[in-house]
Write a structure and sequence with these properties.
There is one protein chain. With 297 residues, the protein is mainly alpha-helical. It is 79% helix and 0% strand. Helix 9 (160-175) runs parallel beside helix 11 (202-217) and helix 10 runs antiparallel to helix 11 (202-217).
């Protein structure tokens, strides 16, 4: 089972496997051996999904420095680590560092791999989400025709990466206030994801959560609450109550209940809400991954 598959199924298992792999590599190989650095990179990526963002940053910084020395600054493996470091900085809301890393990864991949390579499109997708986080929505909008057309041509319409790019585009439509267009695009993404991926996968969680935000904005509050609760239950079961994605879902439910004046519902969540309020500043609880799923190679 690949790391990609494990990350969509069980983060704890992925983290255990990555730690074990790195332990073996460090015992048998030099610290700067390419196989050791691959294990460091995989661990950093998994730590992002585990919500351990400070550890992910440190781990990916090691992967970048090691790859630069062993392979060169423009090597695809170095650029992959820089790409994942970008996501980490996005999650930590360090948008200055994120932009520096995002541009380096994107420009490096364009030069080394070409404009239409899948990894180049990954970097462009990350850069578009960064522009959304920065509030530069018009600039992000200009990027999506290339992203969507490129992924459709390379992978086809019914591929998970193409569908997640549709989700990301729908997020932009939502932020621009184009609610019906966003709803239609989310529905298209969800139809494909429900056919192709497991019902508790990361990407499906993200698309359902985003759809709930659109439904709420359109005044469909019962439907929005149902989706938010579905996602929150999945996240708490898979990741625990302290994971940034779980906190984000709980925050959405509490906000919705406060809007509707649902005293009974608020009372039901009172003990969680107290705990939730103590964790308002949890890193990643408003990060890009909560809206865009897996931004990885």
């Amino acid at each position: 089972m690949t790391l990609y598959t494990i990350l969509r199924k069980e983060v704890t298992t992925a983290l255990e496997k990555c730690l074990k792999s790195l332990e073996i590599c460090e015992r048998l190989l030099p610290r700067d051996h390419p196989t050791t650095l691959e294990s460091v990179q995989a661990l950093g990526e998994t730590l992002i999904h585990a919500g351990q963002l400070s550890e992910a940053r440190t781990t990916l910084e090691r992967a970048i420095k090691g790859s630069e020395l062993a392979l060169g600054p423009g090597h695809p493996d170095t650029l992959e680590s820089i790409s994942d470091f970008t996501v980490t900085m996005l999650e930590l809301d360090d948008l200055v560092s994120a932009e520096q890393a995002a541009l380096r990864a994107f420009e490096g991949r364009e030069k080394v791999l070409g404009n239409e390579h899948q990894d180049t499109l990954v970097s462009l997708n990350i850069l578009a989400m960064l522009r959304q986080q920065q509030g530069q929505l018009d600039e992000a909008l200009e990027m999506y025709p290339r992203i969507l057309t490129g992924r459709e041509q390379l992978l086809g319409l019914e591929h998970t990466d193409t569908l997640m790019s549709l989700n990301n585009f729908a997020v932009l439509q939502y932020r621009l206030g184009h609610l019906q267009e966003a709803k239609d695009t989310f529905q298209q993404a969800l139809r494909g994801e429900e056919k192709l991926i497991e019902p508790e996968s990361v990407d499906l969680q993200v698309s359902l959560s985003n759809m709930a935000l659109v439904l709420r904005a359109q005044g469909e509050l019962d439907a929005a609450e149902s989706l938010h609760r579905r996602v929150q239950e999945i996240r708490e079961r898979l990741y625990g109550s302290d994971h940034p994605s779980t906190i984000f879902s709980l925050r959405n439910i509490v906000s919705l209940l406060e809007q509707t004046g649902d005293v009974g519902g608020i009372e039901e969540l009172r003990h969680r809400k107290v705990s939730f309020q103590r964790r308002q500043n949890v890193p990643g609880a408003e990060g890009a991954l909560l809206f865009s799923g897996l931004l990885y190679d």
